[in-house]
Amino acid sequence: MPEPQTHLTLAEVEAIAREAHAGQRDKAGRPYTEHLAAVAEGVRVRGGSDEQIAAAWLHDAVEDDALSERWLADAALPQQVKDMVLAVSKRDGEDLRSYTWRILDTPGALLIKESDLAHNADPARLAVLEPATRTRLTEKYAQVRALLGLAPDEPPAEQSVQANTAED
């Protein structure tokens, strides 16, 4: 009888993500791992599960070719984590509607993307960019939020449903 598969811990996922993105810089020249940590923390403070936090650490790994889809498929991770990572991974040539529909269709993925957008659109991060880049990215993030049904400064949908239920 095969032994049950043990999954990577959050600390192990974090270490893998940090190693995979080591040396990468964001558009402002900061270490890319700061973005990963901010997205994971954003998911945590928004009430995300351990699976969502793990997916947050890995959310850009496949998209940025830091880790391969094969690595993800073979990784000792719950299928839900793998599904969320793939859902938030933009594919070359993919239109924005298809991308956002996939996120909305994947349980748990919206919270990760909401946290990602919140950090990407942080005024302090955007302030150091060239004005044209800042404007382009601000418009892009607003468009993605709208397609996902997220208003500015709105809590993630999962929490909104819980809050609305509590008020009834």
Q: Secondary-structure element order, as H and E?
A: HHHHHHHHHH
**Structural class computed from helices and strand pairing:** mainly alpha
Range of helix content: 55-70%
What low-confidence regions span 5 or more consecutive residues with pLDDT below 50? 154-168
Number of helices: 10
Protein model, in words:
- The protein is mainly α and 168 residues long.
- The protein contains ten helices and no strands.
- It has helices at residues 10-20, 32-45, 50-58, 69-74, 79-88, 96-105, 109-120, 123-127, 131-148, 157-167.
- The longest helix is centred in the last third of the chain and has 18 residues, at 131-148.
- The protein is globular, with a radius of gyration of 16 Å.
How are the secondary structure elements laid out?
Elements (H helix, E strand, L loop, with lengths): L9 H11 L11 H14 L4 H9 L10 H6 L4 H10 L7 H10 L3 H12 L2 H5 L3 H18 L8 H11 L1
Helix pairs in contact: 1-3, 2-3, 2-7, 3-5, 3-7, 5-7, 7-9
